[in-house]
Write a structure and sequence with these properties.
Elements lengths: L13 E3 L3 H4 L18 E4 L8 E4 L18 H15 L7 E4 L10 H13 L7 E5 L5 E4 L5 H4 L2 H6 L3 E4 L7 E3 L3 E9 L8 H14 L5 E3 L3 E4 L2 E11 L2 E9 L4 H7 L4 H7 L24 H13 L9 E3 L2 H14 L3 H5 L7 E7 L3 E10 L2 E9 L8 H8 L6 H9 L3 H4 L5 H9 L7
Parallel strand pairs: 4-5, 4-14, 6-7
Antiparallel strand pairs: 1-3, 2-3, 5-9, 6-8, 9-13, 10-11, 11-12, 12-13, 15-16, 16-17
Helix pairs in contact: 3-10, 6-9, 13-15
């Protein structure tokens, strides 16, 4: 390793940090990791018989799961000082991750809109600038649909009303999910470095690694699913606001599968893409795959094991933890109140068009178009889907294809000028035109 001066340091070099001793009032151990693999963690040891504190660099490769290790800290002041020093010394950016305990909000979390607003709070609040990780577990059953989905085609509304199952729409993309107390949601909030946003596998890896230790051969399949023996046990979604984003998933442990199968009614295009006929045949719980000695593992124990994996520690006390305050929850409630002004956001407008067609695109998701044709011209169009691009300008596409002749060349050209990659994902204008023109994509 070379410092900016070109001086070479060997493994285990001790680096003196001037003035740090004055900041450290108690014994502590701090693990730091820089962006590149050649930098490992820095261990801070306070010695009463020395005049200065030394940083011992062990240069262990950083966590392959997240691309960075954890930081175990006692005060933000010390962390800030170390950050400044290491950045100046190695000319690299220091990345810190922190666990947020949301258990103080149990009186709020019985409303799914609060859970979703919590995610937006962590992305937008100036209080949180570092990567964070947290869990949530619903106290009662609910169905949560993706930002761009058509609730009328995705959800059995009569069933969930009869069963008093709550309905919510998340700020993020992705598909509809059924969650209940048998479900554990894990969420990362991170800063976009140009490569990590949309990398579902990267953020699923701690869960995959933890499950393997419990005897579960979980794999990342498709765009954003975790599966075991070909059945889905976790689905993931993402949301980006500015330079920060969330990436999280729902982990099915003891979910009521019968209720989930009745509550969700995904379009046939999505089911066909998975080679299945129903929700029930596609999803399952992971507990049945646990090694016998873990069959009775509690949710608290599962959370602990995932945390140890994420932060690469062996003692849960070494996980840097922030507990939500009353003021934090007030900010979350404010976001919820501003976003959810009534049922319009959740329910949307029921499609009432001549055609409703959809197609599943590998690596993107299901894209659906509800549209009407009058005198061989598109008179109205509305785009839906479970694609993970909540920031896309769908109204712009809809406007672009309205008043366009219902013909291949005209539709292809309209989609060509609609910035599909930015607004939906990696789909071609030609494929989108075919989606609208070909009867085989009918969903009605």
């Amino acid at each position: 390793m070379r410092r900016a001066t070109g001086e070479t340091f060997s493994k285990g070099t001790l680096i003196k940090v001037p003035g740090l001793e004055a900041l450290i009032k108690v014994h502590l151990e701090v693990s730091l990791s820089c962006v590149e693999a050649r930098f490992g963690y820095v261990k801070v040891n306070r010695s009463t018989d020395r005049q200065s504190t030394l940083l011992k660099c062990k240069f262990q490769p950083p966590n392959k799961i997240m691309g960075y290790n954890a930081i175990r800290q006692t005060t933000n002041l010390i962390a800030l000082y170390l950050s400044i020093f290491v950045n100046a010394y190695f000319k690299k950016e220091l990345i810190i991750i922190r666990y947020v305990d949301i258990s103080s909000g149990k009186d709020y979390l019985n409303r799914p809109i609060i859970t979703d607003s919590l995610s937006k709070f962590f992305i937008t609040s100036p209080k949180f600038t570092e990567p964070i990780f947290y869990f949530s577990r619903p106290p009662q059953a609910s169905v949560v649909i993706g930002l761009n989905q058509d609730v009328y085609s995705e959800v059995n509304l009569n069933f969930i009303r009869d069963q008093k199952i709550q309905l919510s729409r998340r700020f993020a993309g992705g598909g509809a999910v059924f969650v209940d107390p048998g479900n554990l949601t894990y969420v990362f909030v991170d800063n976009d470095d140009g490569s990590n946003y949309g990398d579902f596998k990267r953020y699923a890896q701690p869960v995959i690694s933890t499950l393997k230790k419990l005897g579960v051969d979980a794999k990342m399949t498709g765009r954003n699913d975790l599966t075991v023996d070909g059945k889905k046990v976790s689905g993931m979604s993402a949301l980006k606001i500015g330079n920060r984003f969330l990436c999280g998933g729902t982990l099915m442990v003891d979910v009521d599968l019968a209720a989930a199968a009745k509550a969700l009614t995904p379009p046939k295009a999505k089911l066909q893409s998975k080679g299945i006929k129903s929700v029930h045949s596609r999803v399952t719980n992971i507990r049945q795959f646990f090694d016998p000695k873990y069959k009775n593992l509690t949710f608290e124990e599962l959370e602990k094991r995932i945390l140890l994996t994420v932060f690469r520690v062996t003692d849960i006390r070494d996980v840097p933890t922030y507990t939500m305050t009353d003021d934090d929850w007030k900010d979350v409630l404010k976001i919820a109140d501003e976003a959810y002004t009534g049922d319009d956001f959740v329910m949307g407008t029921k499609p009432d068009d001549d055609y409703f067609r959809g197609r599943h695109f590998d690596g993107v998701g299901t894209v659906e178009v509800s549209f009407s044709v009058k005198n061989d011209v598109i008179s109205h169009a509305k785009i839906y889907g479970d694609f993970n691009n909540p920031n896309g300008d769908l109204p712009a596409i809809e406007k672009n294809i309205t008043n366009v002749p219902f013909a291949k060349a005209s539709l292809t050209e309209a989609f060509r000028t609609s910035h599909l990659a930015d607004n939906i994902g990696n789909v071609s204008p030609d494929d989108m035109a075919d989606l609208m023109l070909k009867e085989k994509y009918d969903l009605k």
